[in-house]
Design brief:
48% of the residues lie in helices and 18% in strands. The two termini are 29 Å apart. The protein folds into 2 domains: 2-20 and 97-177, PH-domain like, CATH 2.30.29.30; 27-89. The mean pLDDT is 83. The radius of gyration is 25 Å and the shape is elongated. The protein has 180 residues and is an alpha+beta fold. It has 4 helices and 7 strands, in the order βαααββββββα. Residues 108-166 form the YcxB-like C-terminal domain. InterPro entries: YcxB-like_C.
């Protein structure tokens, strides 16, 4: 089976998000950042309530509370801005090899991945996982490196399912040939 692959910047961003979540988050810790953020907000509110209830003058000093909340707010805003800049900085150039039209061929021995400048061959044993996410198919070589097959490559869901079935068939065939 042969497919023509056109990876767009949107496809790359979807893969990056999926790949980072796959590498960082496991099944039990899928929302670690959000859970930590909620925990720090809760701690801040407990301290704020404590200061309010124990104020010596009978009144709560909102100015001091605002100054106390300023540093965590500045930290959070700068963190979000920095992460956004890092994500943008990691985007490949529009003329990079990633965005060239490629040909992917599934063969009994492995996958041929080629464009007008380069050609690669990956044996089936070299793939750690094959995963589908939002219609995209990712052929993982390790935790974060994968061959990206965008959803737009397939005419419909049936074609994608046939593609995945053929990959599964080849991978199973190779495993059955391995000596026990």
């Amino acid at each position: 089976m042969s497919k023509t692959i056109n990876i767009t910047a949107k496809d790359f961003v979807e893969f990056s998000d999926y790949g980072v979540n796959r590498a960082y988050c496991n099944k039990t810790n899928s929302s670690g950042f959000l859970r930590g953020l909620v925990m720090w907000v809760a701690i801040f509110l407990v301290f704020l309530l404590g200061f309010y209830l124990n104020s010596s003058k009978g009144g709560f000093h909102w100015y001091s509370a605002g100054v106390g909340a300023l540093l965590p707010t500045v930290f959070l805003v700068s963190f979000v801005i920095t992460m956004s800049r890092m994500r943008h900085a990691c985007m490949p150039d529009p003329n990079s090899n990633l965005f060239r039209t490629k040909t992917l061929e599934l063969k009994p021995e492995g996958v041929r991945w080629a464009d007008d400048l380069q050609e690669c061959f990956y044996a089936w044993e070299g793939f750690s996982a094959v995963e589908e996410h939002q219609g995209n198919v990712y052929l993982f070589l390790d935790k974060v490196m994968a061959l990206i097959v965008p959803a737009a490559t397939f005419a419909d869901d049936a074609e994608r399912e046939e593609f995945l079935a053929q990959i599964q068939h080849h991978r199973t065939e190779v495993k059955s040939l391995e000596p026990s």
